[in-house]
Every structure is written in structure tokens, then in C-alpha cells.
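Fold it.
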Amino acid sequence: MTDDKTTNTTAITAALALTLATLPARAWLLMLVVGALHGLTAAVPAIGYGTMLLLTIGLDFVVGTARRILHK
């Protein structure tokens, strides 16, 4: 019983560490994409790195919540 708990805790910790490690890169890449769209059309606003970082965290939260709700 303890081995299953340890394995589950290790997997959760690894997934969280991976998410946190890739967060800045994902926000930077998304900022570049939005910046390119802003260059093509004025309808897309220019968004800085800090704002995109917060949006990425928010999107991760929404996706995680949707997965939990739909998984049940």
C-alpha cells in the first residue's frame, strides 16, 4: 500500500516540476505568436511577457479544472 502511495506522489511531483519548468518557455512562445498576430492585424493587442505568463497560468488552471470535472 505504501509503494502505491509513494509512486503516485512521485508521479504528481514530477508532473508539477515539469509544468513549472516549462511555464516560462510556453509563455514566451505564446507571447511571440500573439506578437506576430499583432504585426499582421491591429485587432490583436500587443501583450507583454508578464501578462502572457499570467494568462498561461490561468489557462493551465482552466484546463486542469476541466479535466478533473470531465474525468469524473
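The chain is about 85% helix and 0% strand.
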